[in-house]
Amino acid sequence: MVDYPGAASPPFRLSMLIYDRRYRSLTIQAVVFIGVMLLASWLIDNTLRNLAIMGKTLSFDFLFRRAGYDIPQQLIPYTSDDTHLRATIVGLLNTLQVSILGCISATVVGVVVGVLRLSNNWLIARLMTVYVEVFRNIPLLLWILVILAIFTETMPPPNAYRGENPAASMVMFDMIAPTNRYTAVPSIGMSNPPGVIALGREGISWALIAYAVVLAAAYVAHRLLRKRAKRIQDATGRRPSTLWISLALYLVPVALLTWYFGLHLVPPVLKGFNFAEGLNLDNAFVVLWLALTLYTGAFIAEIVRAGIMSVSKGQTEAAYALGLRPRRTMSLVVLPQALRVIIPPLISQYLNLTKNSSLAIAVGYMDLRGTLGGTTLNQTGREMEAMVLMMGIYLLLSLIISGGMNVFNSRVKLKER
Amino acid sequence: MSQTQSVAFVRDSMLPPEPPPTRASGAILWLRENLFSGPLNIALTLLGLGILWLLFSTLWPWLSHSVWNANSMAECRQIIAAAHGPDASGACFAVIKHRWNQFVFGFYPVDLYWRPVLAFGSLFLALAPVLFADNPRARRIVIGLAAVLTFLISAVLGANGVELGAMAVLLLAWVALIEARRDWALLATLIYPFLATWLLWGGTLWEPAMVLAGFVIGFFVWRALSAYGMFAFAAAVLVAAFWWLALSDIVARGIATVLPMRLTPVTSDQFGGFVLSITIGVAGIALSLPLGIILALARRSDLPVIKMMAVLFIEFIRGVPLITLLFVASLLLNYFLPPGTNFDIILRVIIMVTLFASAYMAEVIRGGLAALPKGQYEAADALGLDYWKAQRLVILPQALKISIPGIVSTFIGMFKDTTLVVFVGLFDPLKAMSDTIRASFEWKGAYWEPYIFVGSIFFILCFGMSRYSMHLERRLKRDHR
After folding, report:
1. pTM summary value
2. SS3 of B66, please?
3. How do residues B140-175 score in pLDDT, each as one tens digit?
4. Tell me, which fold does domain A58-151+282-417 have in CATH?
5. How far apart are CA B193 and CA B73, in angstroms?
6. Do A43 and B305 touch (CB under 8 A)?
7. Apex CA A76: angle with CA A71 and CA A79, to 5°?
8. Which pLDDT does position B295 carry in this prediction?
9. Measured between beta carbons, which residues in chain A are less than 8 angstroms from residue B304?
10. What's the N-to-C CA distance of chain A in angstroms?
């Protein structure tokens, strides 16, 4: 098999499809492709025949029929008279809610524990090791069930907070009242509300828009400031301090808006047998959130620890030798290198957390699986359509998360020439 | 030059070493350095002590009042109240003792308990020649313990004389085989899955045996035609498929009429508890590793069609939660198969769990393949090895070694995920079993004890696996950097 440029390639013979490496790959691919397509057509054919036998047709009409069931916790207005489609969206938003909050809190737990595990303090390092090993080696389902049992079995009922000498007392400066049915937390109130833009049945508060605009403007200003600092640094070698100005850019307008709208926390107050005024978070949500946080936090702690340990001590010493101060050593030398190790596995932990949020089934939290893959599926009997739709949505979520995180990853990645 | 001796102020002998100051040695030094070296450290120590005290003060009274012998929750509470006063609360571990068999065997028929015991005991015999290949001492300890314990436990659980006799012969022969002929013992390891299937589900021996025979026939066809390269493989697959689809049933029935070799069949809904978890877990582990290797190779292949298919499969599986796949197994799989087929729910779950784990496994192994220096691939090519030989002899041994930690953590994840089968109606030890036990009148209110028990078992198994992977990593470390 002569393969250098200029050599006359031998005339094509049929046997080359098998014996010549250049053509054989085509044969193999064709055979595999045909095989997979045959398998797929067999499966589809079976499905169609089965559906015909059961007298069903594939259609997504059911999404536009009346759902007829209630969802305890919802981010957008929903009643049982709404369609299955809206129920699905409510479920999806619930999934997103617990996933995003879970990712944030798990990251906080993971970073704190990961750093503490490396601390010189013998006792704390050991305790954190025990936490990490115990949570990593026991199924998430068990943690969900245990935390659920803690809430339902050991927390007082709401009416225990009643009376002169209540059997239970609220925690965190009288702000949070855990009960065996829900957790009452403060809600955010405004004494000078700016009104709401009505968009169908939902409304977006002007305050929210104001905050978004102010933060976006602050971000742009912050970028410009940094650019200017870099220009000055390139020209003169001295970098002007930007930290305080940046902080002020973000904090001052936000503080002003908060003062103008009169934003404040409304603590939950007992009215009759239940808490009112504040926000009553369904325990299903609280339990799932706590369990996902503690479980994923243990995994993130290991990732953070490995990331920090992967930066060799020589890097820090070299930075000191160049005359960098500890804070700049950390931000310019150690963290960029550690982040490069930390971020890819961190992404997959976020993905895992999002997928694990489907364990909401164990506590009855109405997430996407609870609405579309649960009640809707059971009521309409459309297993095929509901499952396909649900898997498609989960797939899309995963792809979005991993896509977004990959962009971030490629920005912190080692720039190699 | 003996002047030094004569000068009075020159010392002529070494001073004996002084003991270090008490504050700079021993326990005090250790405490100062590790617990109280600065304000932050002191605060952390106090925090740690606080956490410990909180845990101790909530858990200790409950644990120290635990009751191990009782027949119901009410009896437990009476015993605790009698011993520690009316307000005392205590753990009632009697529920574990009372329902032990249910936790372990689920609803498996009581007189057949010896079969899962034998199946899982001989798992160690099957694994020993692989896991402890070059550590004869550990191997002998493991196989000796496995054989003796399997026999004793079966005897205690009430296997009859004939069964015990057959078991003793099998175990002894297998142990002898492992010690005398290592390479033959590996064959026995390959046969093990079929033996275990027969033991667990019962029925006639010839069904799993005929499935095995298909592999054997395919293997011999491939060997006989190996001169023809790709054709040999295709022919082997075709012949094996023909055997399974057309012949195996007839042959199995034929042999069964002459020599039945029947065990009482056990249906899948009688499985439960740890027998179910371990069955799904072990089957998933054993099947997902080879599938994951193939997927990883496909994803790194030069052939674009094959690569694209592998990418699609892996990303699809990794993008959806396991629960949805399990629901597919329970709700949709019957749609995909020819009308009228209905196969076993545990088998369906094993298939889904295997597919799920193999996608993760493929990514782990792909990482290992990518981490190999390019020179290894080029060296294998330079030696004139063809693709499969290069993979088998040069690439995979190194790539798999690099990926051991990832592979084992995938295993651990999968084993933990076996608890999710509760949502498709199987009786996992964690939720279904503890719910079943709480549903009975006498153990109503036993919340914590089943969770603690099942959690500890999972912890021991998973922690053990992760420690073994660390050991394996050290053992396989060939470079001395």
Report:
1. 0.87
2. coil
3. 898 899 999 999 998 888 778 888 898 899 999 998
4. MetI-like fold (1.10.3720)
5. 41
6. no
7. 45
8. 95
9. 29
10. 36
